[in-house]
Structure formats: structure tokens, C-alpha cells
Design goal:
This protein is of the alpha/beta class. It has 9 helices and 8 strands. It binds 1,3-dihydroxyacetonephosphate.
Length: 239
């Protein structure tokens, strides 16, 4: 299982350090072998996490250069970062990243050998059009993306489920993950209002290999609880 915490623009450097101390101790005390990834803000990146991967929520697809306000490869290398989130719904719909820029980021960081958590997911109006519109929308979000990239993780995050407390039904998650599985052998995460109360049921579904958690992962104790739930499921799911 793969359990990820996306902090978005939350937590200071000091708060992140306190958080990491809790999560790292939990992972070692419980001999967790699942992959745990934390995506803090840039200002809280750290060298050498003990047993948890640190990734970035975004970066610009160049080594360095005249890109005011951006962080590029050279700055990530200084922190030993090799994991990146690309295509997150907030970057697509709030910041306005196009599929062209997103696929350029994908190509660049794939060439650099990064582990890429690639996010897809539909807005509410598309979901309301039915399942073929939904899959076509996701298909377009995969344009220019190499779904056979060996270090790929795909996260399905419906836009309307992010930060709203709403989630698709378990059956819908399973159907969409089944359709994604037909397109890629990459691990598939679900994201969108995952919390302690629903993580187990979601992670238990076929073709769900983990979760990408926003608000509920801001509590280190809740995040550890979800890591424990994933670990318990390994035996049940035969992983
Ligand atoms: P929430 O868990 O707050 O819904 O956010 C999900 C998300 O966007 C993770 O990347």
C-alpha cells in the first residue's frame, strides 16, 4: 500500500518537523513496510527523512533559469527530492495549468527518474454527464502521459470530492479504478475526502493500492491511524 499526505499550502517548517517526528517514530515503532510519502510545502523540505519519502507538490520542468517564483530541478536535488506530484486538481483548476504544461512536467521529471504521482479526476458537471463522459475526461487528462512509466503512481481524485467531505460510492471508486487498471499497471491511489473513518473501506477495494490524503492527513495521529489501517489490509489483500 502507498499512503500519502498532501499538505497543500498548510503547515510551517516548524510544524512539519514536529509532524515528521511523530510519523517517522510511528513507522519505525510499528515496522511499517508500506510506502509513506509526505508532500510538505517547499519551505518545509528536509534532507534525509528516516523512513518516509518526501515529495514536492509541484516544480518547474527545467534544471534552473529565469522562471521567477518557480522551483526547479537544481533546488530539488539539493534536498535529495526524487518524488513529485503532477496534475493535481488544484494546479489544473485553481492555478490554471494546461494539459500541455502538465505533460511537459511529466516528461521532464520522468527523464530525471522521479517517482511521479500523477493525478486525474473529473469536476461535478462531468460526473453528472455519466460514466462515458467521465472516462473520456480522464482520457484527455492522460494525453501526453506515459502510463507505462515504471515509477508512476496514478491518483484518482474527483474534483468535487476534494476538501468537501463528499466521496463517490465505494462501487463507483471500484468501477473507475477498474477502468484505470485497464489503462495502466501503475499503483492506483484514491484521493478526495479520505479520513480515518472511511480509509479502510476505500483501501480494501479492488485496484485501490493506497490513498492520497489532504485535510485529514494534517493531523499526524490521524495520518498514522490510516497508515496502520493500510498495514492491516496487506494481509487481507494478500500483499
Ligand atoms: P482532501 O483529503 O482534503 O479532500 O484533499 C484531497 C487531495 O487533494 C489530496 O491531494
Amino acid at each position: 500500500m502507498i499512503i500519502c499526505a498532501n499538505f497543500k499550502a498548510n503547515k510551517t517548517r516548524q510544524e512539519t518537523q514536529a509532524y515528521m517526528a511523530v510519523v517517522e517514530s510511528f513507522v519505525s515503532a510499528n515496522d511499517i513496510s508500506d510506502t509513506v510519502i509526505v508532500f510538505p510545502p517547499f519551505t518545509a523540505l528536509e534532507h534525509d527523512p528516516r523512513n518516509v519519502l518526501i515529495g514536492v507538490q509541484n516544480a518547474y520542468p527545467v534544471r534552473n533559469g529565469a522562471y521567477t517564483g518557480e522551483i526547479a530541478l537544481e533546488q530539488l536535488e539539493e534536498f535529495g527530492i526524487k518524488t513529485i506530484l503532477i496534475g493535481h486538481s488544484e494546479r489544473r483548476h485553481v492555478i490554471g495549468e494546461t494539459q500541455e504544461l502538465i505533460s511537459e512536467k511529466f516528461r521532464f521529471f520522468a527523464e530525471q527518474g522521479f517517482a511521479i504521482v500523477y493525478c486525474v479526476g473529473e469536476p461535478l458537471e462531468i460526473r453528472e454527464e455519466g460514466s462515458s463522459a467521465l472516462m473520456e475526461y480522464i482520457e484527455r487528462q492522460c494525453e501526453g502521459i506515459d502510463l507505462s512509466y515504471p515509477d508512476l503512481i496514478v491518483a484518482y481524485e474527483p474534483v468535487w470530492a476534494i476538501g468537501t467531505g463528499l466521496t463517490p460510492s465505494l462501487r463507483d471508486i471500484e468501477l473507475i479504478h477498474g477502468a484505470l487498471r485497464a489503462k495502466t499497471s501503475a499503483p492506483l491511489l484514491y484521493g478526495g475526502s479520505v479520513k480515518v473513518e472511511n480509509a479502510h473501506d476505500i483501501m480494501k477495494l479492488d485496484n485501490v493500492d493506497g490513498v492520497l490524503v489532504g485535510s485529514a492527513a494534517l493531523s499526524a495521529n490521524d495520518f498514522c491511524d490510516m497508515i496502520a489501517q493500510a498495514t492491516e489490509l496487506n494481509t487481507e489483500k494478500g500483499e
